[in-house]
Each structure stands twice: as structure tokens, then as C-alpha cells.
Specification:
The protein is an alpha/beta fold and 222 residues long. It has helices spanning 39-49, 72-75, 88-100, 113-120, 145-153, 172-180, 193-210, and strands at 2-7, 24-25, 36-37, 53-58, 64-69, 81-84, 107-110, 133-136, 163-167, 185-188.
């Protein structure tokens, strides 16, 4: 599948074509462009993450056309993420924020720590579930979020799955315990929805689109 976007702007010097998709000072492409450009570098990362290729054609003063291809099978094979949250209002808020951010990955919602452990470790051998990202609340019924995290980090099958603690707790002790237990990030839930949506958008962009996950690997034999 090949797509393109064409504009009639200032264009670019073809001598710099190889640098267009790298973060670099853009003065050579015209004084009206931003001094530093990182957007195209992000585009390249996202497209290549989905098995595609990106390039551009153009000339100074004649606009530009940006092309990208996608591996259709890989493009539609979106990794799922796991939301472990017992508060229905916070669950709805998180899902709404993902929808508002146009993040369409499949979501699995679990409402207590025991459900999370059962989901992650169902099956034998390599049967553990491997979501691309886990958003984990700390104050969960039955089994607390920290205990879920500790058990994940002691099991070879789940210890490399990214876990973001998404909670309303502002206690320094909870932050320290989360990182000591193996959390990849700790995010406090903002009060305003607009701020919460911005936080979720940033999480989704990095962990689901830009981050390169650890390759799947079964237990190594002695």
C-alpha cells in the first residue's frame, strides 16, 4: 500500500533529501521553515515500525510530495494494551482519552490484581499474554498493583513488558516502590480531562507507536 501527501510550499533542495527524515537544522531548505525539524523523523520511525518505507520528491520553490508505503498485514496487526483499573470512572476516562487521541489499538480491561495475574499467566509454558503496554493502577482489589508488578518482573515471560503506573497517588513512597518493583514510568492522573488526554496521547505515541518492544522469546533451555 502506497500513500502520498503533496503540497505547494517552498519545497526543498534535493541535495538534502537524505536528511529530510532526520532531526537536523533546516536552514538549507529555506528561511521560512522551522529552525529544527523533528516531525518527519517521527513519521519515519512510525512508518518503519509498521514495515514501511518513506521518501520525498520535490524542488526548491516547487513544493514537495511525501510518500510512504506500509506492509498491509503488519499495518493492521495492532498490538493490544492492558488497562488494570478498578474505578469505572477512571476506566471510562482513560478509554475516552485514547479514543480522542486516535489510538485504536485493542484494549483489554481488567478490574483487579487477581484478574490481571490470571490473564498474564494463563496457560502453560509460553502461554503468558504479552500486551504491548500495561497501564496499571496501584490501589487494586484482591491483589495490589505493586504485587502484580513484582510478580511480572520475576517471571521470564513477562519481565520485559512495559508497565506504566497510572494512578492518582502523589505519595513519594508509592513512586519509589513502583520504580523499585520494575515500573517503566509513573504517571499521575491529571484532574482536568484535557490534561489527562494529553498525557494519554503522549503515552500512546511513545509506547505503542515509537517504542521498539523486546522480541518474543521462549524460556532458554539449559
Amino acid at each position: 500500500m502506497c500513500c502520498y501527501v503533496r503540497d505547494n510550499g517552498v519545497g526543498f533542495d534535493t541535495a538534502y533529501e537524505g536528511k529530510l527524515f532526520q532531526p537536523f537544522p533546516a536552514a538549507a531548505c529555506g528561511p521560512r521553515l522551522p529552525r529544527h525539524r523533528t516531525g518527519l523523523a517521527s513519521v519515519r520511525q512510525i512508518v518503519e515500525r509498521h514495515g514501511g518505507h518513506v521518501w520525498a520528491e520535490g524542488a526548491v520553490g516547487a513544493g514537495a510530495t511525501f510518500y510512504f508505503t506500509l506492509d498491509e498485514k503488519k499495518a493492521y496487526d495492532k498490538p493490544n494494551y492492558l488497562l488494570v483499573e478498578d474505578n469505572p470512572d477512571d476506566e471510562a476516562l482513560t478509554l475516552r482519552a485514547f479514543e480522542k487521541s486516535n489510538i485504536r489499538n485493542e484494549v483489554v480491561v481488567l478490574r483487579d490484581g487477581a484478574e490481571a495475574l490470571a490473564y498474564l499467566f494463563s496457560g502453560d509454558g509460553d502461554g503468558a499474554a504479552r500486551p504491548a503496554l500495561i497501564l496499571l493502577d496501584l490501589n487494586l482489589p484482591k491483589v495490589g498493583g505493586l504485587e502484580v508488578l513484582r510478580r511480572m518482573r520475576t517471571d521470564e515471560r513477562t519481565r520485559l513488558i512495559p508497565v506504566v503506573v497510572l494512578t492518582s497517588s502523589k505519595l513519594d513512597e508509592d513512586i519509589l516502590d513502583s520504580y523499585r518493583s520494575g515500573a517503566n514510568a509513573y504517571v499521575r492522573k491529571p484532574v482536568r480531562f484535557s490534561d489527562f488526554a494529553d498525557a494519554v496521547r503522549a503515552l500512546g505515541m511513545f509506547w505503542l507507536r515509537l517504542n521498539e518492544p523486546a522480541p518474543s522469546r521462549g524460556p532458554e533451555s539449559d
